[in-house]
From TrEMBL, chain A:
This is Peptide/nickel transport system permease protein. InterPro entries: BPD_transp_1_N, MetI-like, MetI-like_sf. Gene3D superfamilies: MetI-like. Belongs to the binding-protein-dependent transport system permease family. The chain crosses the membrane at residues 9-30, 101-122, 134-155, 201-220, 255-281, 301-324.
TrEMBL record, chain B:
It is found in: Cell membrane. Residues 17-268 form the ABC transporter domain. Keywords: ATP-binding, Cell membrane, Membrane, Nucleotide-binding, Transport. NCBIfam families: oligo_HPY. It holds the Pfam family ABC_tran. Gene3D superfamilies: P-loop containing nucleotide triphosphate hydrolases (3.40.50.300). GO terms for biological process: peptide transport. CDD domains: ABC_NikE_OppD_transporters (cd03257). One of its GO terms (molecular function) is ATP binding. This is Peptide/nickel transport system ATP-binding protein/oligopeptide transport system ATP-binding protein. The keyword Transcription regulation does not apply. It comes from Melghiribacillus thermohalophilus.
Length: 334, 345
């Protein structure tokens, strides 16, 4: 097992190298002069030259790539052309925000999705099955921006229950430790901040979790239906076990494997791809950072953030593969 | 033929299980499948009852009806009685049934490769069975599991507990299934074709094991099989089923020596081991034709279209299931007519 993890980690190196190459080329594949596209039409020739010099754009590509690689390896992700703030510093603040949002969204999606899928399968063709699976069909095809805007309109504008943007109200004090606000407020026993950050998290979390929830529910249902027909379920019933352990242990542990694949993919995807949700709810996370950087043509930021997101994606996949072993002992990693 | 004499266990008179006129039907879109349609038999304490019949004749569904595990919908027990130690299984609540399943009546299945849960260790699967029915600590349950694995002949039992099913061979898995089924000292073990999926040598080992365990533990066994060789090996009495109905029911020795029903004749003729006894290497004779579609059964004897001895009346008159001799039930007009002839005299 440990061998396997080490092997996989080693295998990450070429993958990440490939990602650096793609991220690097991004800046150079854009037609025209990167310096000009960053600084805009009004920039003077001196300004452009200064930026080129600063970014080393005058050197041969190979040299540039080598330098970039050297920086990345030492943890230097460059800095924003616009704000001069280092990307690493910015990400240290923003990654936890995205992480919190994703964890919340996936937590709700997994809990509700799996539960709904199991009940729908056990009570196949019941009203619950019909309603939840029709709901899931809508969920999968729901445009997030529309859902998000509708939520803001209803819960913030009309009802005034939930804040439309941000992570925490200005007047609330919170000592940060992990930068995951829910966790920090629990750790510092700050219930006011907990409640406030929870209210901020609720809408973006649900908006972001809708699609994965729907996918997980449908996947769980079909997988459970398949498993419930298996011989070992008949054995479990014939042993006199109660319904609960038969369904939630014997069946679900088997049915969970394909669901786990979906969860892993969705998780990685959300971690990097919460762009839309973070933008609609002004959530100060990585997605919004990427979005703003692309708008502002802040290429060093885009380049490094993509690299980080890709790395996270790959690591989440690795964790998924390891969890597989827990759910299916037949998988051998040797 | 049947080696009853090898057995020294006690078969007593009163029935442990009594099934009377059991009817289990499946209500499908294509029609009502009468999978079990009027099955009557009993099992005595310590006895091994064989149930034989072609594929689809309703053997498994009879067993599943006794366990009250018929998939519903589409299945439903629509009639009859099942009494276990005088208690009516058909009127029991799910809660009461759970105390019977795996505890007083347990079951093993045809395919040991798929009957154990692949994602749990043997330990988990055995211990949960024991703890469901017995008041024990987890440690005691583990000890009991080791004892049981020893009993069914799994070497190095304590270490093997931590293995997953895929780490055992087919024969070993069936032993694990047997150990699990016997973990609460059941009074009745239902074995649904326990050797069909195994190699011939392993088959014999499993049958020997069941024989030995029955001698030691004294439970009754309901042995479902389509193999008359298995019947000869282990059964005291046999019920032959055809199209959801019993057609003949008697002592195993009697069935081999004086079979009454033409379907039983056909079955015996299709088994080389049995037939070569007298006539030497007689050619294997499969019963021509196919079993009827259980959705639209016609009037008369269901076997008539395949029966060499069918008379005109067989196609119109339902034969009744009567003893033609004491303790020898048969469902065939050949014997009813005879009786009529006799009574006319
Ligand atoms: N879920 C179901 N829906 C409809 N019909 C069913 C269902 N389950 C079983 N049947 C029918 O019940 C009949 C009896 O099946 P059963 O499994 O008892 O046969 P069997 O004698 O055990 O055969 P085999 O030797 O193949 O195991 C079959 O004809 C089958 O088509
Ligand atoms: Mg069967």
């Amino acid at each position: 097992m440990l061998n396997y993890i080490i092997r996989r980690l080693v295998f990450l190196i070429p993958v990440l190298l490939g990602v650096t190459l793609i991220a690097f080329s991004l800046m150079h594949l854009i037609p025209g002069d990167p310096a000009r596209s960053m600084l805009g039409e009004k920039a003077t020739e001196e300004q452009l030259e200064a930026l080129r010099e600063e970014l080393g754009l005058n050197d041969p590509l190979a040299v540039q790539y080598g330098r970039y690689l050297g920086q990345v390896v030492t943890g230097d992700l460059g800095k924003s052309v616009k704000s001069d703030i280092s990307v690493a510093e910015e990400l240290a603040n923003r990654l936890p925000a995205t992480f919190e949002l994703t964890l919340f969204a996936m937590g709700v999606a997994i809990f509700v999705g799996v539960l709904a899928g199991v009940i729908a399968a056990v009570k196949q063709y019941s009203w619950f099955d019909n309603i939840s699976m029709t709901g899931a069909l809508f969920g999968v095809s729901m445009p997030i921006f529309w859902l998000g805007l509708m939520m803001i309109w209803l819960f913030s504008v009309k009802l005034g229950w939930l804040p439309p943007s941000g992570r925490l109200s200005h007047e609330i004090e919170l000592t940060t430790i992990t930068n995951l606000y829910l966790l920090d407020s629990i750790l510092t026993w700050n219930w006011e901040a907990f409640w406030d950050s929870f209210k901020h998290l609720l809408m973006p979390g649900l908006a972001l979790g809708t699609i994965p929830m729907a996918i997980i529910a449908r996947m769980t249902r079909s997988s459970m239906l398949e498993v419930m027909r298996q011989d070992y379920i008949r054995t479990a019933n014939a042993k006199g076990l109660s319904r609960f352990p038969v369904i939630f242990q014997h069946a679900l542990k088997n049915a969970f494997l394909p669901v786990l694949t979906v969860i892993g993919l969705q998780f990685g995807y959300l971690l990097g791809g919460a762009v839309l949700t973070e933008t609609i709810f002004s959530w100060p996370g990585v997605g919004r950072y990427v979005y703003l950087s692309i708008l502002g043509r802040d290429y060093p930021v885009v380049q490094s953030t993509i690299l980080v997101i890709a790395a996270i994606f790959v690591i989440v996949n690795l964790i998924t593969d390891i969890l597989y072993k827990y759910f299916d002992p037949r998988i051998s990693y040797d | 033929m049947a080696n009853q004499d090898k057995k020294n266990r006690q078969v007593t008179g009163t029935s442990l299980l009594e099934v009377r006129n059991l009817k289990t039907h499946f209500f499908t879109k294509a029609g009502v499948v009468k999978a079990v349609d009027g099955v009557t038999f009993d099992i005595k304490p310590g006895e091994t009852l064989g149930i034989v019949g072609e594929s689809g004749s309703g053997k498994s569904m009879t067993a599943m009806s006794i366990m009250r595990l018929i998939p519903s919908p589409p299945g439903k027990i629509v009639g009859g009685e099942i009494e276990f130690e005088g208690k009516n299984l058909l009127s029991m609540s799910e809660k009461e049934l759970k105390k019977i399943r795996g505890n007083e009546i347990s079951m093993i299945f045809q395919d040991p490769m798929t009957s154990l849960n692949p994602v749990f260790t043997i330990k988990k699967q055995m211990v949960e069975t024991i703890l469901t029915h017995q008041d024990m600590t987890k440690k005691e349950a583990i000890d009991r599991a080791v004892e049981l694995l020893d009993l069914v002949g799994i070497p190095d039992a304590r270490a093997r507990l931590n293995n997953y099913p895929h780490e055992f061979s087919g024969g070993m898995r069936q032993r694990v299934m047997i150990a699990m089924a016997l973990s609460c000292d059941p009074k009745l073990l239902i074995a649904d074709e326990p050797t069909t999926a195994l190699d011939v040598t392993i088959q014999a080992q499993i049958l020997d094991l069941l024989n030995r365990l029955q001698e030691e533990m004294g439970m009754s066994i309901m042995m479902i099989t389509h193999d008359l060789g298995v019947v000869a090996e282990v059964c005291d009495r046999v019920m032959v089923m055809y199209a959801g109905q019993p057609v003949e029911f008697t002592e195993a020795a009697t069935l081999f020596d004086h079979p009454k029903h033409p379907y039983t004749w056909g079955l015996l003729n299709s088994i080389p081991k049995i037939t070569k006894k007298k006539e030497g290497q007689k050619r294997l004779e499969a019963i021509p034709g196919l079993p009827p579609d259980l959705r639209n059964l016609e009037a008369g004897c269901h076997f008539a279209p395949r029966c060499k001895h069918a008379m005109d009346s067989c196609y119109s008159k339902n034969p009744s299931y009567e003893p033609c001799e004491p303790d020898h039930f048969v469902r065939c007009l050949l014997y009813e007519e005879k009786e009529e002839v006799l009574s006319n005299d």
